[in-house]
Structures are given as structure tokens and as C-alpha cells.
Amino acid sequence: MPRSVTKAFDSNRLCVFSLAAFAALAAWLPTNSSAQSISEKIDKNTYAWVAGETEFQNHCAACHGEDGKGHGPVADLFKTSLPDLTQLSAKNRGFFPYIHVYHTIDGRNVERAHGTIKMPVWGERYTEDRKEEVGQRMAHARIFELIVYLRSLQQKAPGSSAE
Fold it and tell me: Which among 50, 97, 124, 147 is placed 20 to 30 Å from 153, CA to CA?
């Protein structure tokens, strides 16, 4: 197959993969107050949850703590306190802030503790701007898995029924 055709085919596969991942995520979003919560739909034995938990424990827990509450072994080295990642939904009127979390992980929403957009503490691990398409897909998959796991850690705000 000519190189231009192969490149176009690979680009189409990347587009289809991205659309499928976002469609799956969007399907989990509740559309009304009676919708089944995402945490009820996520089986803690699914690949995405297990991979997300592993990714979190290997790359996030040192700062954010194994429980996500911001008290990891190196948290004291920061000048600012680290956020309690179990309260993301509670701080967002009971809804998990998917886009904000995605953009924080991939470096678009730069948190001071994560470094600059040019060199976040995790390097290119979660950056979709990588040159090779496989790297882009892997970065997207890692972020999606982390989001699945972080969503499962959320604690309900008192009196909140929203997900």
C-alpha cells in the first residue's frame, strides 16, 4: 500500500479510536437525576478501572496518596496543599468534572505543582501532542483509565443525589 494511503488509514483509525472512547465516556454521563450513576456502572474488575488504579498508584499516589486524599509520601515537599481527589464531584455540584480532569492530566489546565505546560512532572506520559500516533493513543488511553478510576473514588456531598 502506498505510504500516503497507509498514513491516511492510520489517521482514520486514530480518529475512530478517539471517537469511540469519547462516545463510551459520553454514554456514561447521566442525562437526568434518575440515571444510573457512573460508579454503579463501573465494575471494579473491568480493565479500564484496574488499569486506572495501577496508573494512579504508580504515577499519582506519591503526591496524591494511595486514597487520593492528597497526603502522599512526598506531599509535604509542596508549598501548597494537594487537592483531595475524592471531592472533585462534591466541589462541582455533585457532578464529576470530566473535561477539567482530562485537561489537568494532559497538561492543558496547568496546576502549579505539576510544572509548566512544556514540562509537567510526568513528562509526555499523558500528553497527546506526541509525534507518533501509537504514543497519542496510549496517552489518551492512560488518561481515560485514570478518569475511570478517579470517578470511582468520589465521595458524595452530604445531601447530594447527583452524580
Answer: 124
What grid cell was written down for 96?
A: 464529576
Quickly list DSSP for 46-94: SHHHHHHHHHHHHHTHHHH-TTSSS--TTGGGSSSPPP-GGGTTGGGTT
Expressed as residue numbers, the domain containing 115 is: 37-152
Residue 129 to residues 17, 44, 144, 146, Cα–Cα distance (Å): 16, 30, 16, 18
Query: Tens digit of pLDDT for each residue in 31-78?
Result: 444 344 555 555 676 889 999 999 999 999 999 999 999 999 998 888
Q: How many domains, the chain?
A: 1
Q: Which of 42, 22, 146, 151 is nearest to 89 (CA)?
A: 151
CATH for 121:
1.10.760
Residue 140 corresponds to which cell in the numbers above?
489518551
Q: pLDDT tens digits for 75-114?
A: 888 888 889 999 999 999 999 999 999 988 888 777 666 6
Does a structural domain hold residue 140? yes
Q: Distance (Å, rounded) from C-alpha 41 to C-alpha 55?
A: 20
Q: Full-prediction pTM beyond 0.70?
A: no
